[in-house]
């Protein structure tokens, strides 16, 4: 089995990265940054997002695991003091795979014949630097509402504890293949009306955002990446066909992670 270790880049994470690499090499495992079977991310959930994006092109062949050097992470759920135990598990055991859904997004732009396709592990958002975002929301091809406000967030179940939660969205168990749309400060008055509540769509549904003015530029975030897009005519969101694969060596139920992150850490 080939492995890769990625680090947040701080002293503590780099040190743990070196220890993991040395232990795994001592167990005769091969190291490969280009085609690893297992990626071990050392840092926090942010570091984990970077690591996953680096291997989006080979999700079927790669499993992920996270060691957290900050506070408890959702994706990074192994403690630094458990590293020896983890390494022995990796070297000696066949790991179990747990799959979570991802978000797929296609962006169409004026004068571009083909859309660009992106994947997100947490969420994608659409905002503007100046002024309100004004766009029509369609679900399965039917007009749903005209949104006017700061922006919209479309998240995965595992991303529902991140930005989505801060926007008042629901926490969704990642066993559910779904996407969630949450509003950022929508304008609601006699002229403009939005639903006002988060919407949860099943995997066979399609949501589309169609900016009213095709000449405006938008700030689009995809997990930790922020990019400016101009001449956007339409953005389509679905649950991706691809899924992320986590290497699981012990049970750590999602609801326990929610409890330990947001209520109190029982470990
Ligand atoms: P960041 O602004 O440096 O960190 C955002 C925070 O979100 C970090 O504390 C991170 O944990 C945590 N986080 C990431 N994924 C999570 C998840 N699935 N569940 C619970 N917490 C999670 O940005 P970043 O490190 O580059 O991460 C990008 C993410 O930040 C985005 O995907 C978005 O979800 C989130 N974000 C949240 C808000 C908000 O809550 N108002 C605003 C903007 C962006 P670690 O400390 O372990 O890395």
Q: What name goes with the CATH superfamily of the largest domain?
A: Probable inorganic polyphosphate/atp-NAD kinase, domain 2
What's the order of the H and E elements?
Answer: EHEEHEEHEEEEEHEEEEEEH
> Which value, in Å, is the CA radius of gyration?
20 Å
The appropriate CATH architecture of the largest domain is Sandwich
Give the terminus-to-terminus CA distance.
31 Å
Number of strands: 16
CATH uppermost class of the largest domain: Mainly Beta
| Number of helical elements | 5
Summarize the amount of helix as a percent range.
10-25%
| Named CATH topology of the largest domain | Tumour Suppressor Smad4
Number of domains: 2
Oligomeric state of the chains in view: single chain
Q: What is the residue-averaged pLDDT?
A: 96
The parts where pLDDT drops under 50 for at least 5 residues are: none
Major β-sheet annotation: 11 strands, antiparallel
Q: What spatial form do the alpha-carbon principal axes imply? A: elongated
Give the ligands present: NADP nicotinamide-adenine-dinucleotide phosphate
Based on secondary structure, the structural category is alpha+beta
Percent of sequence in beta strands: 35-45%
Give a verbal description of the structure.
By secondary structure, the protein is α+β, with helices and mostly antiparallel strands. The chain folds into two domains: 2-95 and 249-263, 3-Layer(aba) Sandwich (Rossmann fold), CATH 3.40.50.10330; 102-242, Probable inorganic polyphosphate/atp-NAD kinase, domain 2 (Tumour Suppressor Smad4). 18% of the residues lie in helices and 43% in strands. It has five helices and 16 strands. The chain has helices spanning 11-26, 45-54, 83-92, 163-166, 254-262; strands spanning 2-7, 30-31, 38-43, 63-68, 76-78, 96-109, 116-120, 123-127, 133-139, 142-155, 178-186, 199-202, 207-211, 217-222, 225-230, 232-248. The strands form two sheets. Strands 6, 7, 8, 9, 10, 11, 12, 13, 14, 15 and 16 form an eleven-stranded antiparallel sheet that branches. Strands 2-1-3-4-5 form a five-stranded parallel sheet, with helices on both faces. Strand 9 and strand 10 (142-155) form a beta hairpin. Helix 1 runs parallel beside helix 3. The two termini are 31 Å apart. The mean pLDDT is 96. The chain binds NADP nicotinamide-adenine-dinucleotide phosphate. NADP nicotinamide-adenine-dinucleotide phosphate (NAP) is lined by residues 44-46, 49, 70, 73-74, 122-123, 158-159, 161-163, 166, 223-224. Its main location: cytoplasm. It is found in: Cytoplasm. Pfam families: NAD_kinase, NAD_kinase_C. Involved in the regulation of the intracellular balance of NAD and NADP, and is a key enzyme in the biosynthesis of NADP. Catalyzes specifically the phosphorylation on 2'-hydroxyl of the adenosine moiety of NAD to yield NADP. Its EC number is 2.7.1.23.
């Amino acid at each position: 089995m080939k492995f890769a270790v990625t680090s947040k880049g701080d002293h503590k994470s780099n040190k743990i990265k070196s220890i993991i690499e040395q232990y795994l090499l001592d167990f005769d495992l091969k190291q490969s940054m280009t085609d690893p079977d297992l990626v071990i991310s050392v840092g926090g959930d942010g570091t984990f997002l970077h690591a996953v994006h680096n291997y989006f092109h080979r999700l079927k062949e790669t499993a992920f695991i996270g060691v957290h050097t900050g506070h408890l992470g959702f994706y990074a759920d192994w403690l630094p003091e458990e590293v020896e135990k983890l390494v022995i598990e990796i070297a000696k055991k066949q790991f179990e795979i747990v799959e979570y859904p991802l978000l797929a997004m296609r962006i169409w732009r004026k004068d571009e014949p083909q859309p660009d396709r992106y994947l997100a592990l947490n969420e994608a958002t659409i905002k503007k630097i100046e002024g309100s975002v004004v766009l029509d929301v369609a679900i399965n091809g039917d007009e749903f509402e005209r949104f006017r406000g700061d922006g919209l967030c479309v998240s995965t179940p595992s991303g529902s504890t991140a930005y989505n939660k801060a926007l008042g969205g629901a926490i969704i168990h990642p066993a559910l293949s779904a996407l969630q749309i949450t509003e950022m400060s929508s304008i609601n008055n006699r002229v403009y009306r939005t639903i006002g509540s988060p919407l949860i769509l099943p995997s066979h549904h399609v949501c589309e955002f169609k900016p009213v003015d095709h000449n405006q530029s938008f700030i689009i975030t995809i997990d930790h990446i922020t990019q400016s897009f101009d001449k956007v005519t339409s953005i389509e969101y679905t649950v991706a066909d691809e899924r992320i694969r986590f290497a699981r060596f012990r049970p750590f139920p999602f609801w326990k992670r929610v409890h330990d992150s947001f209520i109190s850490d029982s470990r």
